[in-house]
């Protein structure tokens, strides 16, 4: 009789965000919100 057992171990680490990455992400979110607002206003205009 053969018993085959396979174990997996998964580890998650929290990634540190640098100041530059945080500033870039903030800019991206602002641009996304501005674009979304512009699209909504154009949709209402038509």
Automatic annotation (TrEMBL):
<protein>
    <submittedName>
        <fullName>YrzI family small protein</fullName>
    </submittedName>
</protein>
<dbReference type="InterPro" id="IPR012655">
    <property type="entry name" value="YrzI"/>
</dbReference>
<dbReference type="Pfam" id="PF09501">
    <property type="entry name" value="Bac_small_YrzI"/>
</dbReference>
């Amino acid at each position: 009789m053969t018993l085959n057992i396979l174990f997996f171990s998964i580890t998650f680490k929290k990634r540190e965000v640098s100041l530059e990455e945080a500033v870039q992400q903030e800019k991206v979110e602002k641009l996304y919100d501005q674009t979304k607002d512009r699209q909504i206003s154009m949709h209402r205009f038509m």
